[in-house]
Design goal:
The chain has 197 residues and is mainly α. The chain has 12 helices and no strands. It folds into 2 domains: 114 residues; 35 residues.
Length: 197
């Protein structure tokens, strides 16, 4: 999880650099390439997964909601920064385009000081001692055996669950209505007005 976030941040910094240099290179294609790279980044799902896994159970819902908050905050800051009086002028717009690399840079510098997520360490790596150490580092000293037991139950459940391929998931009748709902919600999110806001 953590390594994937770090790689994703490198991708965002490269994308920001490409867009920031587009005026010097006199190439609008660089903006298209940079925006494409931003689009294929995995920021939102990775944020949910990592933050949800490192949060104590009682704060997990709150932690997962931070993604939507910061997404909206970023859009608002971008709109305000894009005003002509700030970075929206003819000379400063490359800085505005490159500003998406700033949060990625902050995360790239700070994330190495955070541990890997405890469920990942225990379920995928089988490192129970590393899991306990990560839990103590994240949640402080205390009795966390109940949390470790919950992770072990989840691991046992996953081992008994068949992993479906994308094609098998689409063909499975039991998941059809859930799949329809997800597709409809995802397809219509652009029509909800968030971009206008």
């Amino acid at each position: 999880r953590k390594k994937c976030l770090l790689c994703n941040n490198l991708l965002m910094i490269v994308a920001a650099s490409i867009m920031g240099c587009s005026k010097i290179a006199q190439s609008f294609e660089m903006i298209l390439i940079g925006r494409f790279m931003c689009g294929i980044s995995l920021c939102v799902p990775l944020h949910h997964q990592y933050v949800g896994e490192i949060s104590p159970k009682k704060l997990r819902g709150f932690a997962n909601s931070t993604s939507s908050f910061f997404w909206t905050l970023g859009k608002a800051v971008g709109q305000i920064s894009g005003q002509r009086e700030l970075l929206g002028s003819q000379s400063l717009w490359p800085m505005l385009m490159a500003s998406c690399g700033l949060p990625a840079l902050v995360q790239l510098v700070t994330l190495p000081f955070f541990p890997e997520s405890p469920p990942y360490l225990l379920m995928h790596k089988g490192d129970q001692e590393g899991c306990k150490k990560a839990i103590r580092q994240l949640w402080g000293e205390g009795h966390h055996q109940a949390d470790i037991d919950d992770i072990m139950k989840e691991k046992a459940t996953m081992e008994n669950t068949k992993i479906l391929s994308v094609l098998e998931l689409v063909k499975e009748p039991a998941f059809r209505w859930q799949l329809y709902m997800i597709v409809i919600l995802t397809a219509t999110v652009q029509l909800c007005g968030i971009n206008a806001v």
